[in-house]
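User: Sequence recovery, please. Input:
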């Protein structure tokens, strides 16, 4: 994946209260506060394996992990979701981790998406909070679109990326995106709130209420704007190891790695 442009902002204090703007303009329509002892499978489903069951070797990116639903790789504790990447021999792979999604249990066309999370760091570590179309209405990836709310490369732990993928089906696809850099410390040091506002014909990205990117220009083959971002999408949370973009872990990478999610909240305009 290729990422274009950069906008660096200053994060606000990390708080859990809703902004006045959110309270007045939006209604909470879906959330998971991870307050129980188990993953709520009325909201999330697991994706396991190496991607071959979905026609994607290495999940389409030459990733190195085997995703599992084991408690060693994913669990809920103390009001938070934990996704754990472990270096171990498992099903002919050298790493395990976790990946979950809301498909057919949380699917939205437009809205405001807020996720409070603390990220891992290290060469070859790739946490992501992102969205895919529930139905590939306009064709295979990426003609039907992809929205990356947050991705981070573990060797750049103070920078996150927000991106959309669109255009034709692979390899005739393209992408637009930008990045946000913390002025001090890393995303692994504390929790931060990652927000996407998705409206008809426009998407906006925020970190801790700081706006760093607006995109209102894209296309999809044979369909008029705002396709493909005018259909229902679902959310995915995963912690990948290796892959074409971050590269592989090396001797400096420590395991286990952990991505911790405090909450996921979805709002829609009143």
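Assistant: Recovered sequence (270 residues):
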């Amino acid at each position: 994946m290729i990422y274009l442009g950069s906008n660096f902002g200053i994060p606000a204090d990390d708080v859990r209260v809703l902004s006045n703007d959110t309270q007045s303009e939006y209604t909470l329509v879906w959330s998971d506060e991870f307050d129980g002892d188990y993953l709520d499978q009325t909201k999330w489903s697991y994706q396991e394996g190496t991607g071959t069951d979905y026609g994607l070797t290495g999940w389409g990116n030459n990733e190195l992990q085997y995703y599992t639903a084991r408690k060693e790789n994913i669990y809920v504790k103390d009001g938070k979701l934990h996704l754990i990447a472990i270096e171990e021999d498992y099903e002919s792979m050298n790493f395990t981790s976790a990946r979950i999604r809301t498909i057919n249990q949380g699917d939205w066309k437009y809205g405001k998406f807020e996720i409070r999370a603390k990220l891992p760091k290290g060469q070859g570590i790739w946490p992501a909070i992102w969205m895919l179309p529930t139905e590939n209405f306009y064709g295979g990836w990426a003609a039907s679109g992809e929205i990356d709310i947050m991705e981070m490369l573990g060797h750049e732990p103070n920078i996150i990326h927000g991106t959309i993928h669109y255009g034709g089906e692979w390899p005739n696809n393209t992408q637009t995106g930008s990045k946000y850099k913390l002025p001090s410390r890393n995303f692994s040091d504390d929790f931060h709130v990652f927000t996407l506002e998705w409206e008809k014909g426009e998407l906006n990205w925020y970190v801790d209420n700081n706006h760093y990117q607006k995109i209102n220009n894209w296309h999809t083959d044979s369909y008029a704007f705002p396709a493909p971002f005018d259909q229902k999408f679902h959310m995915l949370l995963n912690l990948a190891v290796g892959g074409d973009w971050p590269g592989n872990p090396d001797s400096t990478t420590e395991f286990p790695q952990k991505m911790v999610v405090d909450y996921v909240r979805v709002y829609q305009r009143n």
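The helical segments are 20-25.
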